[in-house]
Amino acid sequence: MGSAMNIVARGTYMVTPLGEGSGSNYEALCQGRSELKPRPGAFGLPETFVGSLLPRDCWNEKLKDMPGRDALTLFEALCIYCISQAAGNADLSDSGTIFILSSTKGNVDLLESNPDDPRAYLDWSARKIAGHFDNGNTPVTVSNACVSGVCAQLMAARMIRSGQYRRAVVAGGDLLSRFIVSGFQSFKALSPEVCKPFDANRTGLNLGEAFGTIILEATDHVGESDWVYVASSNHNDANHISGPSRTGEGSYRVLRDLLKHVDATNLAFVNLHGTATNYNDEMESIAVDRAGLAQVPVNGLKGYFGHTLGAAGVIETIMSMQAVDHGAIIPTRGFTAQGTSRRLNVTDAPRATDKKAFIKLLSGFGGSNAGICYRKGGAE
Amino acid sequence: MRLLKQVEIQPGCVRTDGNRIDSLCGLSLSEIYRKVCNGYSKFFKMDGLCKTGFVAAELLLEGLTPEQKAEGSVILFGRAGSLATDRNYENTIRNPENYYPSPALFVYTLANIVTGEIAIRHKMQGESSMYVLPQYDREAETRTVQAAFDESDTTLIVSGWVDYENDDNYKAILNLYTKD
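The joint structure predicted for all components is written out below.
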């Protein structure tokens, strides 16, 4: 809520199958690219799935000279790589810096060969990552299913606002595995084709791999091109652990909270979760409509990246920042015809905007919903 | 903020506000459930982590009205998260000859489901979060709870440590906080 101290994003970076770097990923979206494709035989699964996968060989080769690589999993090494790139020359070892990891499953793939592998504990990875930067503070891992990436930013902002730390490194990531994909297949949640968020003919979600970092810092001075944290919110539906609320209650409450801190007329867009499952997109349409945002442009990025789990809230926030930096709204890849009971202003083609704020919304298993609002430059 | 009550559960021992509850000590989670709650059949679908958190929350929140709980939050910390269920789920997919992934099991392979189970049971529509730490850190809990009171409209928070490795090794320390 309102306060004199400002929190700004000092650095961002992301790695996806579409490229590395915030700018090059944004370029890929402008070109309408995606690496979502059928993956027969991947992870030895009996059933093919459509997914967006990082080329393991390329990344193992690229990261082979990282100091201490032998003691790191690829998951940890990719988190570290993104953080290093986002930080540039900044020293992250100081006691005023906290590391916050956002991941749903971390090194869960290691259970395949050893059920007792200590690296499967999420705090193991978080300590490896913070330790790589010689940071002595105990890192926190946010493991709130699909909303983790926004909740990690919420945690970061609160830790800075309370004066406990002056900088927070938010690192989101998940690699796909036999474990994760088989689970979503058992749920019958996966689409046999490239996903179609909010579309009348949507057939479910695609999974994707991604890593992203946002470094948040306290500052007294906000520049015109700085990204300023405005507010965040988290609400549980208190309805069902694996199905969204029929009234969009949690997401509606999140939007209602955020609109106390940003005027809807200043919103360039609301970047929705938009998994392209029947229930999620329908729920979000109800929540957005109830919050009075039916006219505000909305979009979803799962048609480019797939659902990237613990990374989603981080990379989709970064892409939203890039879009506003370029005065644009990213079209919803895969969307052609309205397919939700409440009509939304779904962006289906590149559009220009001169507005400077956006909301990123997420929802997920456990009845969780979370949203965050950023604004570019000084006060409205 | 104010700490109203504390519940601690581990194998063989149940305490509220530091006092041993003799009638519950030595009982399994399911046996404690039958004594303090019953009639909530979803309990038996839950995994060990959720059962641990659920039973502790039942003891913590008994006597509160729906109105008191409506804007409540569930903000938990733990180390293992869903790892016990992850191991069970892995057993259902490891062998191609015996491959039977189950959605009922997979849904519990997320660390935050326990926060959802408590929120659903008590109709708490405030925040829900699961944070993973290497060990219980009461100071981190207090700071996190204070920040949630400062930065949201929540009026009541269930917070604490919930960790489950197996039926012989689990622990919940839940604290009930109000804003003022």
